[in-house]
Structure formats: structure tokens, C-alpha cells
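Usage

Read records sequentially. Each one opens with the input sequence:
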Amino acid sequence: MPFVLTNCKTGNINVNFYDTEYSVILRKSEREKKITYIRLPKKLRLENGFLTNRMFKRIVYSYKINKDKCLGLVLYQKKNDSLSRISNNKKKAISAKESLEYIYYTRHFIDSTKSIQQQFKPYIEKMLAENKDTLHIGTVDEFKQQHKELFEKLTKNDSISIQFLDGKKLGERITVPVAW
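and closes with the structure output:
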């Protein structure tokens, strides 16, 4: 679902979200033998409709379920069929009338209650058997099908903000809801 942010004087920035084939990643606590968080991948495309280059510093993922925690996101660009991690704290430029694509991974913390953790029992058993603290478990679409209620609870009303620069100062901040 595209979002268009328009400035009548100079142009617009289009923000689009796309599904990916990258895996959902579960992270297990070594001490408690529970799933502590889920990393969900999504593709983000920023299209610069301006006649000038646009600079931005950071992409912020806002988690509505965990407002008090700054969970961040991990940002990647696809290079030669693999993901290359990039800094989310350095300036990035979108050339005039061009676009940038990123893959990002969220980090949604999981409730440690028995009812929630029970959903992850087969994954935890596999992780214990293989002596792993992370496990790739399929795509976001597959996870949504298997854990629909949990997925909706984790991602409902989440948003992304992008802080653009105006010269060397902070400029416009745009915020759009994330389309899962």
C-alpha cells in the first residue's frame, strides 16, 4: 500500500511497503528457555519526487505495543543477492526523481506468559536440540497464517518515521503506518 507525502511547492516522497521472502527470526533466551523476541522482515521503498536530492538521517520504527522501549530496527540493502547491513544513524541521500530500497527487520518482544510461549514450543524444542539461540522459521506471510492473533497484536498500529534534513539541520519528519 503506497503512501504519498506531498509538498505543493517542491514535490513528494512516496513510501511503499512490500512483502519479502526473507525469514522471520526467533530469538530464545538462554537462561529462561523462552522466545524473547521475533524479528520480522519487510521491504521499504522510498521514491523521491522532488527535483532535488533529499537527505535523511534515520528511519524509526514505532512499536505501539511497546511504546516505552526503543526496540529499533536493523536496516539492510540488497547487494549481489545478499543483505548488507547499513547504519541507520548516518546520512542517506535519495537522488532527485530516484528511489532507494531497504530491507528492514523489526524486533518485537514476546510476552513470557505460558499461553504465548506455548505457541513457540516446537520451535524452542528444535532450538534446544540444535543448540541454537536463533531460528529462521519461514516468511512473514507463513507466520501470519500460523499465528494470526499474535501477529496482529504485535504489529497493529505500528508506524515508520523518517527524519529528513534541511541543510545541516533537522527538517521535515514524515510518519506513515506500516502496511503488513
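Summary fields computed downstream for this record:
- Confidence is low (pLDDT under 50) at residues 5-9.
- The first helix runs from residue 114 to 118.
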